[in-house]
Design goal:
Elements: E1 21-29, E2 37-43, H1 50-60, E3 66-72, H2 78-88, E4 93-100, H3 107-121, E5 126-130, E6 134-136, H4 140-149, E7 154-161, H5 163-166, H6 174-194, E8 212-215, H7 219-222, H8 233-243, E9 248-258, H9 270-279, H10 292-307, H11 311-320, H12 325-332, H13 337-347, H14 358-380
Parallel strand pairs: 2-3, 2-5, 3-4, 7-9
Antiparallel strand pairs: 1-4, 5-8, 6-9, 7-8
Helix pairs in contact: 1-2, 6-10, 6-14, 8-13, 10-11, 12-13
Length: 388
């Protein structure tokens, strides 16, 4: 492994709030003053992939736009390879080499650190998140500009598998995977048709991943930063943005290819899901996939709450969802309707999510498809009643 010279600790105020950090070292080049965009990524033991990731990324960024990379407890040449690429280019960069207190570090925390620093360095820049095993495709940066110009605050780009790696994946239960894909698509379509979003006409991919999302300038501060979770920080961010009533766009325009390896670096990430589907006889599936009855209940309740014209009407909806008077008062005290509904979902016993196993999807699929057909027919019938 290449031996790097010692560097001075990074001293931005942001780092004072990271008690989990045991050691921080900094390499920095150029200035972020006036940067129109900053891309961030965490990396851990990515020496084999970081070259391709950074070359593609820096080719897409406009002059003066920068990169913040947090090398997160690596034991290989990730840092040295990244530093060599940065120093050979002209993009402003901030490269942190960090170690965490034992048991305290994680990929979500490293992503939060990178975003915090990018926002501190350039608070008026668009912020982009990718992963260190991800390669942005040509037109990625321009596609984000198109979406921001349309008014989106958070853009969730498209994520595809690296074709060469996908061809080498060990086989899985193809019938079960077909059911999974059909179940996911039907669930998203039901939600999209019952509660249409003008910014995301159906069909759309309906997903967010840390490997490819962008925040319009200023939005990161408005949402209070990336939520700190053990995993699933990207979905937590999506919920937060929606809770504040900010526009979200699911776009096929900004496209990345990401690794589909089975030995991932982040707990709860894509690699874990791919590995479970091959190693476990009956793995748990995405928590967003629920029985048709539960999905319909959730959407109808959300719409009834949003359409209630008075506190009394909202209270009736919440009482039907099993909330106590004290809980209803807490919901009414929330600052925005979106934040109020987020709290409702946390409190209601009738909206509690219970993760299904893959075998249960096949059992539940007929009811879900029946609901989808009813929703489609209602939408096609101009004389039909409101499906909600």
């Amino acid at each position: 492994m290449t031996d790097l010279q010692p560097v001075q600790p990074f001293r931005l105020e942001t780092l004072g709030s990271y008690e989990a950090l045991a050691r921080v070292a900094l390499h920095q080049g150029g200035t972020f003053d006036g940067a129109g965009a900053v891309a961030i990524l965490p990396a851990r033991d990515e020496a084999e992939r970081i070259d391709a990731t950074l070359r593609a990324l820096m080719a897409e960024l406009a002059p003066g736009e920068g990169v913040v990379l947090v090398v997160n407890g690596s034991t290989d040449d990730t840092l040295a390879r990244a530093l060599a690429l940065f120093e050979a280019g002209d993009a402003p960069f901030l490269l942190l080499d960090v170690n965490w207190q034992p048991g305290r570090g994680s990929a979500p925390l490293a992503r939060r650190l990178a975003l915090d620093l990018a926002f501190e360095l350039s608070p008026h820049a668009h912020l982009f998140s990718i992963d260190a095993d991800t390669v942005v495709q040509p037109g990625w940066r321009a596609a984000y500009d198109v979406e921001f110009a349309s008014g989106a605050a958070l853009v969730c780009g498209a994520i595809g598998f690296d074709p060469a790696e996908a061809a080498l994946l060990p086989p899985t239960d193809e019938a079960a995977e077909t059911v999974l894909r059909e179940y996911r698509a039907a669930s998203r379509e039901i939600d999209a048709r019952l509660d249409p979003d003008p910014l995301n006409p159906w069909p759309h991919h309906g997903n967010i991943g840390g490997a490819n999302f962008g925040l319009r300038a200023g939005v990161y501060g408005a949402v209070g930063g990336l939520p700190v979770t053990s995993f699933g920080e990207d979905r937590a961010l999506l919920r937060r943005v929606r809770a504040l009533g900010l526009p979200v766009r699911f776009s096929e325009g900004p496209l990345v290819w990401t690794s589909c390896r089975l030995d991932g670096r982040a707990r709860g990430g894509l690699s874990d899901e791919l590995k479970r589907s091959r190693d476990e006889a009956d793995p748990l599936v995405d928590e967003a996939l629920e029985p048709a009855e539960a999905l319909e209940r959730r959407i109808r309740a959300r719409l009834a709450f949003a359409r209630a014209g008075s506190a009394q009407a909202r209270g009736d909806v919440l009482s039907a969802l099993g909330l106590t008077e004290a809980e209803i008062e807490a919901v009414e005290a929330e600052a925005t309707p979106g934040e109020a509904w987020t709290l409702v979902e946390e409190l209601s016993p009738l909206l509690k999510r219970e993760r299904l196993r893959r075998s249960q999807l096949a059992t539940e699929l007929p009811a879900l498809l029946k609901l989808l057909q009813a929703v489609r027919e209602s939408a096609r019938d101009p004389a039909g009643s409101d499906p909600v």
